[in-house]
Design goal:
The strands form 2 sheets. Strands 3-9-8-4-7-5-6 form a 7-stranded mixed sheet, with helices on both faces. Strands 1-2 form a two-stranded antiparallel ribbon. The N and C termini lie far apart (37 Å). With 231 residues, the chain is of the alpha/beta class. The chain has 6 helices and 9 strands, in the order E-E-H-E-E-H-E-H-E-H-E-H-E-E-H. Helix 3 links the parallel strand 5 and strand 6.
Amino acid sequence: MTAEITTASTDPRDRKRFVFHRTPFRRVLVGTLRLALRAVIKIEIEGLENLPPEGPVILVSNHLTNYDVFPMQMQIQRPLFFMAKAELHRNPIMDAALRSLGAFPVYRGQSDEWAIRHAYKVLEHGQVLALFPEGTRSKGVGLRSGKTGAARMALQTNYPIVPLGVTGTHQMFKHFPRRTLIHMRMGVPIYPRAGESTLGLTDRLMFAIADLLPADLRGVYAHRPVGFMDE
């Protein structure tokens, strides 16, 4: 299995190399972040055993701030591959660093077929694809309605979806020198059901994320509709 891929295409992103493994740069950066942020944050994580130790996984999480990915990468032992807004890739140095970390650019506000294809490549390489189904940051006001991308991928591949609830990142650096507590809870894997609709699976995974969050962060998923079944 090749660790890098370059494909001829009319899309300029296919002229770049994207990694599908844990790079030395990622190891060094994650280790550096653990040391540098020790005085600023304290991270707790529950349910890490729910993440399969190998094979393709779709990890779905709530999205509080741009900081979310840092504690996720620091505490989850498997490397995470995630979409990053295309604007972050405009700077050549940042672009190279993000690609070495497993990030790949996505154009928001439109159907980005290249980003979707690349996400499938991540899964085909047996890696963890980290997605934020809300599509944007909630900034601590609670879960927004989930987009259907993660559910569509799971229905097409039958790969497991692992829900993750993250709290505290929206408070980072606000109470320095006091450390901010970042808490993460990982739920049991969710598998598509025979005949399940995209919207049905999206609701299931979003309610699963809500169950991992305190009541004030559950947003539009604070209350299940009458008759809703998630088991």
